[in-house]
Amino acid sequence: MSDQPVLFEKEGAVGTITLNRPHRLNTVVPELIDSLNQALDEAEADDEVHAVRLRGAGSSFCAGYDIGWGAEVMARNEGDEPWDPMLDLKFMRRYVDTYMRLWRSVKPVIAQVQGFCLGGGSDMALCSDLIVCADDCRIGYPPARVWGSPTTAMWTYRLGLERSKRMLLTGDPIDGPTAVDWGLASDSVQAADLDSTGAELAARVARLPANQLMMMKGLVNSIYEQMGMSSTQLIGTMMDGSARHTPEGTRFSNKVMEDLPGTIVERDGPFGDYAQGDRTAR
Q: What is the pLDDT at residue 75?
């Protein structure tokens, strides 16, 4: 595939956006965010595109932020200076605003999830309109254990109180069938069938007139936005910065600079999930 971090292609009335950093499990870095915004610009400007399919190249949808890059940014930008939460908020808004473009796009977005869908990757999926996933995928928010808070706060809007707390108070992942059972995803299929399932659902959505899709999406979204979504996201984004600057968060960041794989093992090993242990989803 191209070495561009995000690809865009069109087939009929469906525009497909592909996160294209498979060698890094499509983890989030500034270049990916810039390229994703460009792809969304292209999809939204094309009147022939009625629906957008969002997928990841390779084995995973998106394994979250590139932790090594994030730790380097903290070390480079802050050094010995006191932490400024407002500068941190401004920095993170670039990413939150991009995820929320999926939510606000007048064109429905169908996320196609395989492998890992974690951290910032889960923000992308949960800000999409519909999710289809592979049975053996892992969807979760491991930064809830240390070093993060969900900036878009979509877990509660998508799952409700009990199940969002179940996810965020443990950092545990769920698999595809559980995502469907909990109402997070529309379909869960064998990994080999995921691409065709995502394409078929996107094509089915795209059969509707663009104006009708805009009305139906806007109607449902307005219900959730009246629950105070923007205020919740402000709190979530500020807590994300705070979580990275707690004593535990700072130690985590420093350890990442020295030994990234070992630091992840230390965090997730006791839970026996994600890339550790038997990867059994809860």
A: 87
